[in-house]
Amino acid sequence: MNNDWNANGRRAFEIHYHSGPSDHPSCFRRGVCLPCNSFTPSHSRREALKFIAALIFFFLLVIQAFAAQSIRERMRLEPRGTRVTNTQASDLTLTLSPVAKRPIQQIVRTGGTIDKTRKVITASIAAPDGSLIQVGQRVRSFPPESKSSMYQARVTRVTSRDHETIVEVTLSGEGVEGRTRYVVEVTVDRGEFLCIPSEAIIEEGDHRVVYIQSRDGSYLPKKIDTGVQGELYTQILGGLEAGEQVVTFGSFFIDSEYKLKLSDQEPGR
Questions:
Q1: Does pLDDT of 62 surpass 80?
Q2: Do 90 and 118 fall within a single domain?
Q3: What is the pLDDT of residue 94?
Q4: Are residues 61 and 133 located together in one domain of the fold?
Q5: What's the rounded Cα separation, in Å, for the pair 16 and 23?
Q6: How far apart are CA 168 and CA 182, in angstroms?
Q7: Same domain for 70 and 115?
Q8: Strands, E, within 99-180: which ranges?
Q9: Inside any domain, residue 32
Q10: Which is higher by pLDDT, 12 or 157?
Q11: Which residue, 20, 72, 185, 260, shows the most beta carbons closer than 10 Å to its own?
Q12: 92 phi/psi in degrees, rounded to 5
């Protein structure tokens, strides 16, 4: 369109048609007719191609989303529990342990000072651990600077003072010369209890969970109540029965797989 002013001061509009590239050649190069301010056929084709390309990209995204959903449905774990293949179990060195009665030993740790003979160490233990210490219990002791210098010892004297227990430990040999401070580890036998290996227990906020192996080979979580906790084993007060198999080494892998399964089965996934 030509924008010219007529004698009356008004703009006169006339339609300008392109018959080919000979009319305003620059229009066909730039894609728009500058004199008439109109789009050329070549510009319209480019716009149409852009629209078609955007539409194809959109459909590809939709197809990819449906494919991903289909794969997730096929990989979804069974609702009864987490399954582990023999290959996975071998790679993870997955181990099981029965719920059974075992002796539980607890280690009470403290620090003490050795006397001039380099034989007797005096240490204090706060309640309630102090009430567990008795004469004759086995002890391991070593200077903090040299754990390789481990000494076997025995509790030879126990006295109570205020709210703590004073313990004297006699080493089997003379201590390291020049070392006055020693770490003292007293082994306390707590007795036999229905228990499981402590490494099988997973802390879940304010409760504890273990994974048991069911008869069909899957693994299910169980909340447990615990009592005495030793170095290797923890007493079971509730949640498990004698003979059940709990996952020890590899329990965190089972826990992760189970939580992924629950997450995958949430509504909308």
A1: no
A2: no
A3: 76
A4: no
A5: 10
A6: 12
A7: no
A8: 100-114, 120-126, 138-142, 151-161, 164-171
A9: yes
A10: 157
A11: 185
A12: -85, -10
Are 16 and 35 contacting, i.e. CB atoms less than 8 angstroms apart? Answer: yes
Q: Match 């030993």 to its residue by tokens.
A: 105
CA nearest 190: which of 123, 134, 246, 248? 134
Tokens coding 148 = 């390789």
Predicted confidence at residue 59, as pLDDT, reads 74
- The tokens describing 143, both together, are 């200077």
Confidence of residue 1 (pLDDT cuts 50, 70, 90): very low
In 147-180, the DSSP E strands lie at 151-161, 164-171
CATH number of domain containing 200? 2.40.420.20
- For residue 113, CA distances in Å to 20, 120, 160 come to 106, 8, 18
Domain residues for the domain of 239 are: 86-101+193-264
Q: Please identify, among 191, 220, 249, the residue that sits at the C-terminal boundary of a domain.
A: 191
What is the chain's mean pLDDT, rounded?
Answer: 77
Kindly report, residue by residue over 116-173, the tens digit of the pLDDT: 999 999 999 998 999 999 999 999 999 998 888 899 999 999 999 888 999 999 999 9
Number of domains in the chain: 3
Q: Do 117 and 132 belong to one domain?
A: yes
Residue 41 φ then ψ, to 5°: -60, -35
Q: How far is CA 220 from CA 2, 90, 197, 205, in A?
A: 82, 19, 17, 18
Residue 236: predicted pLDDT: 97
**What SS3 class is residue 103?**
strand
Residues 147/190, Cβ–Cβ less than 8 Å: no
Identify any residues that bridge with 203 across adjacent strands, giving them in sequence order: 208
Helix, strand, coil: what percent of the chain each, to 5?
Answer: 25, 40, 35
SS3 of 208-240 = EEEEEECCCCCEEEEEEEEEEECCCEEEEEECC
Query: At which residue do the structure tokens 């001039």 appear?
Result: 116
